[in-house]
Amino acid sequence: MNYGLYISVSGALNATYRQDLHASNLANVNTIGFKPEVATTRQRDAARVEDDLGFMPSSDLLERLGGGVMSARTRTDFSQGVVRTTGNDLDLAIRGEGFFTLLDEQNEGESRFRLTRDGRFTLNAQGQMVSVVNGMALVGAGGNPIRLSGESPVTIQADGSILQDGDEVARISIIEVTNRAALKKGPDGLFVPNATQMANQRPATGQVVQRAVEESAVNEIATLMKIEGAAREAQGNIGMIGYHDRVLNQVINRFARIA
After folding, report:
1. pLDDT tens digits, one per residue of 43-59
2. Are 98 and 173 contacting, i.e. CB atoms less than 8 angstroms apart?
3. Residue 182 belongs to what domain range?
């Protein structure tokens, strides 16, 4: 089979994947606390190397061409989003590093904690501060859900301490994990830490901003340009696939007939 055809196919698949990923980021340009995904690409080894077939004969020229490209591990861009004032007492943003910690009481897996940068909270019927997105309880410094009295105004300071009537009634747990790259992305903009990350957590240096939220970290213009670039790259590789197909057709239908 035509080796160049396989290389062109790998380029088209990789470009299409990146186009879809950037389109997903763009769809979340208005999602509070959203952190975009970043696509990475690596060169594929030649088939003989990749399949560990060193004992088989090969062509030095083809091996220098490699095996095309393939998608590598997708990572998350944790860049700071714009902090926008809302005026709601229980809207919170983090300026700097760190995550809000939520308790997923419906989960019985390795870790029941979830991390988020979406700081939109409200009080439920039990007086717990819960996420307006998924209803999970906000965790305090002691590892338990935060409960407030709905009768007094709430003041939340930069270190996460919550004051009512001048007294500190709770402190929000703002944490940082040791290896952000290992965080798994969950639904609703959540990140799922494993037990090791929670055990090795450390206090974050970020500051809490009351009556504000952190907007999506997606750069709309840059993302649009990446979508267009990936689309052009995919189209170029598809054009090469058509070229290889025509060459192969000539080989089969013309030169084979002459032979």
Report:
1. 777 666 666 666 666 66
2. no
3. 83-214
